[in-house]
Fold each of these.
Amino acid sequence: MGKVIGIDLGTTNSCVAVVEEGTPTVIPNRGGYKTTPSMVAVTEAGKRLVGHIAKRQAITNAENTVYAAKRLIGRKWDSPPVMSAVQSCSYRIVEGPHNDVRIQLRDKVYSIPEISAIVLQEMKIIAEDYLDEEVEQAVVTVPAYFNDNQRSATRDAGTIAGLDVIRIINEPTAAALAYGFGMEMDQLVAVYDLGGGTFDISILEIGSQGVFRVISTAGDTFLGGEDFDARIIDWLVEEFQQENGIDLHEDRMALQRLKDAAEKAKCELSAQGETEINLPFIISSGGNEALHLRRTLTRQKFEELNEDLVQRTIDICEATLEEAGLEKDEIEEVILVGGMTRVPRVQRAVAEFFGREPCKNVHPDEVVALGAAIQGEALTTEKNEMVLLDVTPHTLGIMIVGGLVEDLIPQNTTVPTSRSKIFTTIRDNQTAVKILVLQGENERAEDNELLGEFVLTGLRRAPRGEVEIEVSFEINADGIVSVSAKDLETGQEQSITVTASSGLTPDEVKKMASESQDYMVERRASEEVEQKREQCRRLIDDVEKLFPKVEEVVSGSEFGKDALEKAQAVISRANHAIDKQDLSGLVDAIESLERTHRMFKGVVAKMG
Amino acid sequence: MDLPLTSMEGYVFSRLDGVLTVDDLCATVGLEHDEVSRIVTKLVELDVVEVLEGDEPESSEPSLGGAPSEAEDAAPLVSSPPDEGGDLAPEVRQLLNALRIRLENSNYYEMLGVPPIADKAAIRRAYFDLSKKLHPDAYFGKNIGKYRALMEEVFGRLTEAYETLSRKDRRAKYDEYVADQIRAWEMERRLRGEDAEPAPPIPDDQPSAHTEQAPARQQPPPRPRPEVKIGAESEFHRKMRQERGRQALMKLIHMSPSGGPPQAQTVMKQMASSIVLEEPKAGGPANTVLAHRYARAGVEALALNDLNTAMNFLQLAAELAPGEQSIKAASEKIRVHAQTTLSHTYEKQGRYEEEAGHYLQAAASFSKALDIRGDDHDLMHRVALNLLRGNGNHDKARDLARQAVKAQPEKAQYRLTLAEIYLKKGWEPEAKQELETACRLDPLNEQAARLLRAMGRQP
């Protein structure tokens, strides 16, 4: 059994680490770098490139170089983040089957997990070169706020890369793990993780016996360094547009150059007060004249352009603290993770908010991979040195009648966890039911993330509401959801088919909600139906008994004939409801019968 | 209860359950072996505990596996069949089995093995130590057979316990809830007339005498000796022991056994002054005279907010002189008040359970309150609402919701709940009607409006 590696699969850069003789170590690639760009390209000759070499030719081969695939993984085609990426990315993002997302490179179309798998495979090779042995197992990290689809897709990427992903762990938790490893101290920490594409904040308590417990976590899976870059790009493009009447967004190569320049400028502004952006021959004008772009960006302007993004991260921090039931001053250490935390404005904002200087002795680019390696080691060896108690970041529920969501496992529940609920059929002789499993905090089903539809077949034929099905939801230690169901009467576990989880659009979900065909409602006691039927029969009897008397009294009058006809109709509807065992029909019938009976009694009393 | 015990000793006493060995006690209460031995010895000397030597516990609650040095004292281990969970260490298996038994009827403190007065750091330590042993990850990729499911269940409960006790606000509410359970239990017993409490000492003629209750109690009237055996015991003794344990627990969490909120105390004072007792006929039977003395003592106790003692005295007085009307009336008055108090306690429990998301338990508690205060439409509504949320008996929920609506037709909230119940049963026309009424009564009610809109979208 080989070593387990820890991989930080980042939006912009990836990192791999391993524990060697008790020491977690980052593994450098062939070029000696400790991180590798998460970029994949296909050259004109059809050759596939990964990492630094892909980055180097990104500008000249803009259309066929993929970056920030992490922003797309596990998402649906018609979701706002994907739509926005389609607008701003230099590579081609296209729609796949079942509302999926695909990327087109040269003449081939790739799914997002396939792209990420190429990066993971590169990290695997880096590790194997260093360790001089085959690597089969890995722990891969994801943002804490990733939902189930994004996690599953990441795991799929690992499988495609030929890795057995033994655990998916959250990036802030991994960072805390690396931070607190071997520390043997009790501490309450906050991990502020602002990376290339995502933001997470996690509050953890660390126990000296090696326990790391997440209290609460939140974030934004579409907020990161790329967005800060985008602000710079937009600013440059806008001015250029005003001066030259050309929208640089249209030109892929120009866009790529701008992106590259923006990223460089951002990094430089961490060390200096201003920087020059110089892009000669950025584009040719209508008259084939070469245009140049040259501007100075001050740190102040940069901070101004990104003020709201920084503020958003602080707002999320505030909400997370409240969720944890803690005050700012109870936090004993703040750990900064991710390249973006090198930006002075970000550091200032964090220090101001928490009222303390953040911890300086963790490496923001490497700490996550180190944590992943430590967790891998812990899971696969006998040493019982530490345990991670993480939480699920999103509420899990199912759709119920009316298109609303019924919550089953709330947000920030410690995993692993499981809950069950009992459901039933809503039509007579319904032999199959369809459950929609949703993840998210919104009240309407279509506003949440659809994890899957489950079809449960082979139910026994019975009047509606009689079959009892216990559906159990489970979130495992990876934060991945699984569902099972059991027919309580027979005790058998019935078979479940998981249909394509990335299939449905919100509109389709809405449509399903209004189709009450195959959906489950809560258990309804069947004695009720029997009782109502009995009641109905008695009432029909009572009314029919009064018929002759009433006829006698009112026959001849129009009103009388009308009333009798109506009464007949009521009775025949009631009989119908009795036969059909239709509960709502029965309730209506009983009401009508009672009314009729009262009226008849009144008539008879007055006259007779 | 006036044994000269410290809080810690009282707590250890309350942990005795006829099965645990001294070693088990050490693990449960988190004290050293020497300390626990000392306490047990003291309890034996006070004649409240009997150690059955050589009695092997028949139950399957083996030692909780403390430090290795205590291994020799441990009760016989329960061995497991070789093919089930081979990779699971024996002491962890025992721990799991012991905790499984607790899942049924232990409170959070007992699950974690900490005293109710434990501070946050101690609670965290207990939970974290247990996590290292019982988190499924400790057995990642190993074969532990059927114990995996048990481990997840036990660990889940421990996590629930920690999540409640680790936050000051949640813990305060939980402590209050536990205290309420004990109060309710006590009150129930009194109302049923099951009082194992001894006959109180005869109050002197001097009116001030009974205020010194502590010394008065030490006087002769024989009381049933609370014998506690470690080993087999009768049902009566077990209940007695549980009661003492619970009283000890309550003292530890600093709750007064009979007080109640300040408002209730003023009510009792007023009630006391409103009770009129006749003077016994001079020269009448001795019992009657005694009865009147008791009765008067009871009323004075009531004025001092001691409801339990008041009930005690009045019950006794009524038994001694069944013919005396004024005593009967007073006893009845106090009894009714006690029941009302009990119903409020149940209601409080229900609110706690509701907030904690234990809906069916909440419905049961509110139901108990409703049994006493049958006209309270708010209680009706609360039972219905919790049955709805907890997926309980929908027919009962519907009936109660209907009653509530009938009692208060103008209350939109009640109609909303009824509508939701109708929806669960698939009675859409009825639901719609209630929702429309609710919206009319309270146009600002968002939930009703939303549900109505959702219904409107359906074909």
Amino acid sequence: MIARVTEYFSRLAAGFGQGWTRFWFTPSDAATVSAIRLGVGLIVVYLHATLSLDLVALFGPDGLLPVADIEPLEGGAFSYLNYLRTPGELWAVHLAGLAVLVLFTAGLWTRITSVLALVVFLSDVHRAPMITGPTEPVVAFLLLYLCVAPCGRRYSLDRLLARRANATQADAWSAQPLTTATIAARLIQVHLALLVGLMAFSQLAGDVWWTGMGMWWLITRQESRLVDFSWLYQYPLLLAAWTHMIVLFELAFATLIWVPLARPLLLALGMVVWGSLALVTGDLPFAAALVVASLAFVSPATFLACCRGRV
Amino acid sequence: MTSPSEPSPPIAWSSEARSLASLLIFIHLFALLVAVTTYTRPSELQLRLHDLFSPYLRTLHLTAYPVNYPFARYHLTHALPTDVDYSVQVELTGADKQVETVTVPAAGLQPLVRQRRYQALANATGTLSDEEANEDFSGLLPRAIAGAILKSRGATQGLVRCRAHYLPELEAMAEVDAGRREPLENFSNTYEAQVFISGNTIELLKKSRTLDVAPVESSRNRATTPQPAPGARP
């Protein structure tokens, strides 16, 4: 009996070890992480560039959020913006940050700009967390994992420059399967599944997502919403169905996304669900960030086929 | 990461490199699991583990567990009295003796992400201004916002108030026709204070507090209009 138990645990350990190695360390093409770089780069450039319009009004010496006054709300995380005093300093550093983000999005010197992009973004967030929302943690983890990834190997200026120097070598360089590409994509997949699971469970901690009224309480927030769905008060069953569908989808996404057959369906449904939430909450960047993160579940072969005009 | 039809490329990393990477991945995923499971209703153990990983999680912005305010509400709403949109109003008499009211967020900000930022700021101010829940923080944002606005207008005193926009119940919407919906919209001041500027010092003198919700049974936690406290200003 003891021998059987021992044998079972030996097989379990061996099977887990093989599965773990296959999951994390099978080299893959950099197409997926490069596409994610492009998507998250656009989002982060948008967030940073639009901050320019209120830079001094928010963070300036006489701005709405002086460092000394709001320090207890910041949580003590590092931001280089905390050390800038004059509007001139703020603008210089902000524009340098914007340049870094543009270079990262375009895929130039990606090994360096990916790390710098993370620093720029986190400094923006940590300077005033009270003007952020659910989008920023998603963008933060995407940027973090792209620091590990060879995300400049495709769809980038790095590749273009390499091709100018030597096209054959550049093609071989960008097509080389790499373990770091797999690790980064897997980390994004696991993190996204955890996050969507968190959304479902935290919703189910409140009554309104059980009683079917969750969407109603979002729809009625006039200041936030993009589209007025308040006429749906005439159709309470529809509201309840919408509420339950969102929770059900989130639970399904967190678990069934690992089943290859269900994956395309969940990714397509995700576009609909995140899109509908964006219309109601007005949080378009959040929906965009979730869609970009979902790209981690699309295989590099699919991206390459798309670029060649066949899926 | 390969499609099912493709043969998998051989594992490239040595056993030692894989072991080290596995250890780092495991520690990171554990920290992440702690961050995710702490978000809703953390146990004492979860909170201690979160504290342990907090420098790592907070530096990389990987946790939504609030320092003192839930900036990322992944539950979207629980229909709590604070799950509403707020606005911050600053009333002042400018250098030209004209009375002016400045509202945050201002109407019509473009692009929309700017509106989202200022709305988030107003919502944070409103949520934190509940003094019983946030004794140390309730005045921080009203003081900062009012101080900046007063200084920008050259005024030395004014009034700052935080207004909650309470939401209509579904049943109430159904009871009135479309033309009478407007009266259902209900605003309430959750925080009001006089602001004085003297040199570089900004002082707040709190006036009243109207968000005193009576513990009504079923609708106690709903984001609808709370019963005003006796004598409170409408």
Amino acid sequence: MLNIYFMKKLNILKTIVDVFWIFSTLLILIILLAIPYILFVDNSNYFDIHISGFKIKTIDFPTKIFIIIQMLSYLLLIYCLYIFRKILEYFVRNKIFNELVLKNLNKMGVLLIICSFSMGISSMLYEVFYTEKVTIALGFTPFVLLLCMGLFFMILSEIFKTSKIMKEENQLTI
Amino acid sequence: MPITVNLDVMLATRKMRSKELAKKIGITPANLSILKSGKAKAIRFSTLEAICRELNCQPADILAFSSDESNDI
């Protein structure tokens, strides 16, 4: 049985995630329309966008690949948000130790790690080849943050698995 | 599991029904059924004490250890 304070916090979190999700669905449409546009339309003259802190002016084939990798990574991040929303729905319905929650937490962790590597490596390669400088920045870069979050969700999944076993044992103690 | 619960045998010898025992020891018939079927993972000392008191027996009369033959070889 979930207590009232837990439910209050959970509802606040779910509302924030829901609002964020609604805005993200618009972003999905924009990304899906932008990918073929970037790939097939000759837009080398009038392109001026910022992706991952880089100002992109000239569009050649490697830059197009960089932009598409970044956009696909964003799509993966949005999918992670969708999974998180589903997990929260299970929590609201008081199904905390459901098998799907464990699977979704692990899936979310794996996806976040994939995202962090695809975004981090593509950004690093772009920086090396186009700005011709290599910088080492300490602190919470999106790459490190996403990697930590991914690992955290995978650990959380394992913790939930252990908790589920303990809960079952407790229920079968007469 | 090598530990077997002989509660049904004890109930039969005492001519007592499961429901009656469950009521006397203060657990639900569903939980007593879990205990009888051997699905239980653990038993509390308080439950064991109550069962022994009501059936007038020793814990060894209810619980038995049977090792696997394959383990002995």
Amino acid sequence: MEPFRHLAALACPIARANIDTDQILPARFIRTPRSQSHAPMLFHDMRFDADGKPRRDFPLNRPQWAEAQIIVARRNFGAGSSRESAVYALADYGIRCVIAPSLGDIFASNAVNNGLLPARVAEAKAEELIAALEHGAAEVSIDLEAQTIRAGNHVMAFAIDPVWRMKLLNGWDDLDLTASFRAEIDTFAKRDAERRPWAAPAR
Amino acid sequence: MGEAPRSLFDKLWDAHAVVAREDGATLLWVDRHFIHEGSFHAFDQLKKKGAGVARADLTFGIADHYVPTRGRSAPIPDESIRHMVDQLTENSAANGIELFGLQDPRQGIVHVVGPEQGLTLPGLLIVCGDSHTSTHGAFGAYAFGIGASEVAHVLMTQTLWQKKPKPMRVKVEGRTAPGVGAKDIALSIIARIGADGAQGHAVEYAGAAVRALSMEGRLTLCNLSIEAGARCGMVAPDETTVTYLRGRPFAPKGEDFERAAADWLSLASDAEAEFDREVALDGAEIAPVVTWGVSPEDALPIDGVVPDPEHAPDPGKAAQIRDALAYMGLRPGQLLTEVRVDRVFIGSCTNSRIEDLRAAAAVLAGRTARVPGFVSPGSSLVKRQAEEEGLDRIFREAGLEWVESGCSMCVGINGDVVPPGERCASTTNRNFKGRQGPGARTHLMSPAMVAAAAVTGHLADVRPLIGTRA
Ligand code: SF4
């Protein structure tokens, strides 16, 4: 995975709470293989009307935000289904960071596994950022090392779990890390089978 | 000084930690891994790497998300849906994974089948690429949903890197009234703390009202943990747990079972264990609950009224209410019992077990549904048992359809959808926009409350309909 350190990019405000993974990628699209771009399906039913025409009131459809790589939303972004394809849709569209007061745990973990930064800010700060973006601020710059977000003259700290921060900063891949603990895993499994013989399915 | 007091969750965590990194990331051993049709992304990742499955003996496949609920003997007509079920069959066979497939008499929804088969046991660490894996915590297991990359990691290594969630306890003391069940308790908790109220936390449910729940009720309660944002939910094992598990196909047998049961019963939070957060509810104060909006936190007692955005505490919340009411087609101040429904659905991993079907049937018996709807039992075995008890007849005579088991109208990807604009009283877990189909309007409630909506044609209090029959 590519390490994530800094990002300076356009940010799009989506001033809504509870944007769940069903909104990010509706369930009827989750059978799409990874080899196919998920970008056209991102926020599908918020972005397009029943006839498939872009809804003019949806922020990502406005020319000034179409190229955004950062999304700023209200609380509980990415709640709901564990579908990783919600993250594929964001990533394929070009989104590299989501800023919100709270984010679904499974969503955030999937995001990190795909090099996308889930950044938590205080509710008042999210509102401040959304207002600034809606009133013409455009570029936002994010420093993961320092855990700061800058937009014009607004500067704010963001929170991220230290484990996720390290993983993004280093571009670590879980499988590579796990491979270095092969022996420990084998020892654990052997000892555990003696300690909890009932844990194995009785066949 | 003895050891520091630990919560049930601390004990489960410690028992599965293979190695802990300095930054806090811990490699955990996985006891049980359930996979369903959605696992194709993970298997594609394995194929790309030329990797195999480390412990097929601890992995179980279940066809549920895309399976048809009607006409099962014929091939699935929609090619892309058929492909989803076929992929699971092929990936399971190629890797030696036991599959409860479409034609298996044990088939059903993964979170119903696991417990029913005795694959879910206390003390286990259980994962599945599905957010409602929290359900299995009802047995005192550490069970949580994971994404596709994590599913691939578990398939390849039987382990998973995790950071430790913070322990939280939700106590429900007192006794719930007749007509009030686990679903009402769970929705009341979510309404209280919010759909992100338990984010980053491992929730333990405790208190007299929780202890009084059957395994079915505890499964419903833990199922909805994720709707409060929790990583997982759990109830400490007790005699109810042990009794449920005795004789289940994959549970330990004979002496092994007794030894296991002794271990299980020792799994409890120490008296002095510290919780990062505590929430308390009085069971006696909980009324039957329905949701009015597009998040499970939008839940109110049935005798309430639709909220008014003008009275919201802040502009953000006001916007949220306005948006929900526009989608749901509701007016501020409207009585919830005035809201007419177009159809009903009884099913899903939240409320489709035998006890749920009995509760709905008790209300429907001798009555007629005013709206169409159907009942999809949680598993093919639940279906058979319900038929032996004659419940299917009650549903049919009331005018509801009795269909096969699967995720069905909970997520609609097998083709069972609520038509756009229609309003559905549903026993499922998510009232998200479009969850039951594009434009569908979902009201979540218990099986008994769905039955009450069916016979009245609107959202209704089930309490006058039970125990007061002529
Ligand atoms: S019934 Fe619904 S919530 Fe449960 S596993 Fe199936 S789709 Fe998910």
